[in-house]
Amino acid sequence: MSIPIQLPEIDKQLEVSRDLATSVETQAQVIVHCNFLAMNPGDGYRIWPTTFLVDQKTGHKSKLVHAENVCYYPQWQFAQKAGWHSFTLVFESLPSSCDLFDLIEEIPEDGAFKALGIRRNKSDVYNVEI
Questions:
Q1: How far does CA 53 lie from the centroid of its chain?
Q2: Could you give the C-alpha distances from 80 to 46, 69, 70, 74, 128, in angstroms and in order?
Q3: Angle 100-114-65 (CA atoms, 0-180°, nearest 5)?
């Protein structure tokens, strides 16, 4: 006994394609590889969850969603030696209209990380010195 297969209507296929495209766009992320210069062994560094990418045109803030190879506040990570140390931050997507943005760590003390005037590229992967 065979069961007839009902194919979806073309309009339904277009709707599914549109939903999928929206879902993929929503899940897009921005990756920022950060380089921090420790002047001395034992220099501490960390990232606060109140770190954002800020669209210079609209003020839109993309939230930090993940950090790799760096501690979150209130913990500290200490440099084993003087020199450059790398970590990676993953943020929510930026608005499609964004051409220029800033990485801003909003904290209630001195020493916040900042990288200003980052020009947007097609890959949404960046390298900055902070």
A1: 7
A2: 14, 13, 13, 19, 21
A3: 80
Under 8 Å between Cβ of 89 and 34: yes
Residue 125 in tokens: 């992967």
Residues 15-73: pLDDT tens digits?
A: 544 554 444 444 689 999 999 999 999 999 999 999 999 999 999 999 999 999 999 99
What the block records as the tokens of 95 is 């608005």
Backbone angles phi, psi at 114, to 5 degrees: -145, 140
β-bridge pairing 29-38 and 125-129: parallel
Q: Which two structure tokens, joined as six digits, stand for 54?
A: 């800020």
Residues 6 or more apart whose CB falls under 8 angstroms from that of 89 comprise 31, 32, 34, 47, 51, 64, 66, 67, 68, 70, 103
Is the CB of residue 107 less than 8 Å from the CB of residue 52?
no
- The beta strand positions in 57-108, using DSSP E, are 61-68, 77-78, 83-92, 100-105
Here the tokens at position 45 are: 């560094």
